[in-house]
Design a protein that fits this description.
mainly alpha, 2 domains, two-stranded antiparallel sheet, 19 helices, 4 strands, globular
Length: about 450
């Protein structure tokens, strides 16, 4: 029996090495856009683009290898869309936390992920949150990402009278954004494999050719890949504003924890079902190993210089291509590691070329809304408040808070509380305290 057969149980799952390799390559192509998009988002904090690109490749590569060898699942990992926006726009730009300190918070959250996973707390929290809020948070993050993309493309700008308005459609940035949006939309509609990655590159090339973007390559230097490595500031993360474990730190860790939980649970259920790996009773085998892999990858990512690592729904493309074991994830991870050596070139891609990807990725995250029972006010109202608050307050934490508090209130008002709702009520109480504290601080 070969090493691969013993490690991944290929025959038992009805697959083969060639099939798994093809599946791994398919998954890589569908999510390779993160190598270009993640640096474009995190660079607004002042982080060097080449360093973030290298960190993205390293974190994704290590995460995929861990998922493959530890959990034997065809699920790929990479820095999460949504959490990278929260890191950049809320934590660093909005709260004024230096990016080095924010990386320290990511590291601490990764360590907490490991501890909570071993203790079984992450699984307990997942069971306490209504599935409707899972769906609303996912879609709300999608709107958040799409809004950032619309701003990046210049399609949406500030307006004193209406808060936001349409940008200058005659500007080169908007023209390139619209061109990219058209290219990516067509490629996705035609179901082209790797459509987002291909679309970003094609948009950049056309932008340079048509004079809509400047071609400004920098000299290739391998040392640029270490621009964010080991720059995290853990002591500062433990004492933001001199208050130690204050509200700011706890809120950031809370969001990192919950959004990572929701991303992983949603992805695990969707991909595992498609791969036929869910047990008849609905449980997911080796769940602890899966959560441990993503927690470890988050720690590696923080050390390398990127935001929280999560499971990617794009893994479903590899499963559709026949992937059934962790060998699929291993192949994807090796391809990310190979991409590491071209990371310094990520900075030549204009922001307007990556903005359409954010818009469409955000749009594709709307699908979970179909899982919400909109006819039941107890479910629909908290889901709506979560969905709308995330993009309009520019905060995942606020959306989560409104949703949990509303759900707890309506459960009490309609006398639909169950024995297992104690943790939900506790979370709602914490959010109430949070808003009271914010009111007095203001």
């Amino acid at each position: 029996m070969s090493f691969l057969e013993r490690t991944f149980k290929l025959s038992e799952r009805g697959t083969s090495v060639p099939t798994e390799v093809l599946a791994g390559a398919t998954t890589f192509l569908t999510m390779a856009y993160i190598v270009l998009v993640n640096p474009s988002i995190l660079s607004v904090t002042g982080m060097p683009v080449a360093g973030v690109a290298a960190a993205t490749c390293l974190a994704a590569g290590v995460g995929c290898l861990l998922m493959g060898f530890l959990a034997n699942y065809p699920i790929a990992l990479a820095p999460g869309m949504g959490l990278n926006a929260y890191f950049a726009f809320t934590v660093v730009k909005g709260m004024g936390v230096p990016w080095e300190t924010a990386l320290g918070l990511v590291f601490i959250s990764g360590v907490l992920f490991v501890v909570l996973t071993v203790a079984g707390v992450r699984q307990l929290i997942v069971s306490a949150i209504p599935r409707a809020l899972f769906s609303a948070i996912s879609a709300g993050i999608g709107l958040f990402i799409a809004f950032i993309g619309l701003r990046g493309a210049g399609l949406v700008v500030g307006n004193e009278a209406t808060l936001v308005g349409l940008g200058d459609i005659h500007s080169p940035t908007v023209a390139l954004g619209l061109l990219g949006l058209a290219i990516l939309s067509v490629l996705l509609a035609l179901k082209v494999r790797g459509a987002i990655f291909i679309g970003i590159v094609a948009t950049a090339l056309l932008g340079w050719a048509l004079g809509l973007a400047q071609w400004s390559p920098q000299p290739y230097r391998l040392d640029e890949m270490t621009g964010t490595a080991f720059q995290l500031d853990i002591p500062a993360a433990l004492g933001i504003g001199g208050h130690g474990f204050g509200l700011a730190l706890l809120e950031i860790l809370f969001v990192f924890l919950f959004v990572d939980l929701f991303d992983n649970v949603g992805t695990l259920v969707a991909v595992s079902k498609r791969a036929g790996l869910v047990q008849p009773d609905g449980t997911i085998p080796r769940l602890n190993r899966i959560l441990f892999a993503d927690a470890s990858a988050t720690i590696v990512g923080s050390l390398a210089g990127t935001s929280t690592v999560v499971s990617y729904i794009e893994s479903a493309s590899g499963v559709s291509a026949g992937g059934r074991t962790g060998l699929t994830a291993v192949v994807t991870g090796l391809m990310f590691l190979a991409t590491l050596f071209v990371a310094p070139w990520a900075g030549v891609i204009p922001a307007a070329a990556t903005a359409p990807a954010l818009i469409l990725v955000g749009g594709m995250m709307m699908h979970p809304l179909t899982e919400i029972d909109w006819d039941d006010p107890v479910v629909a109202i908290p889901a709506f408040l979560t969905l709308i608050a995330i993009p309009l307050t520019f905060s995942i934490a606020n959306g989560l808070a409104f949703g949990v508090m509303a759900y707890a209130l309506l459960k009490i008002a309609t006398r639909r509380l169950e024995r297992g709702d104690w943790l939900l009520l506790g979370l709602a109480a914490l959010f109430v305290v949070r808003f009271v504290y914010m009111a007095f601080e203001a």
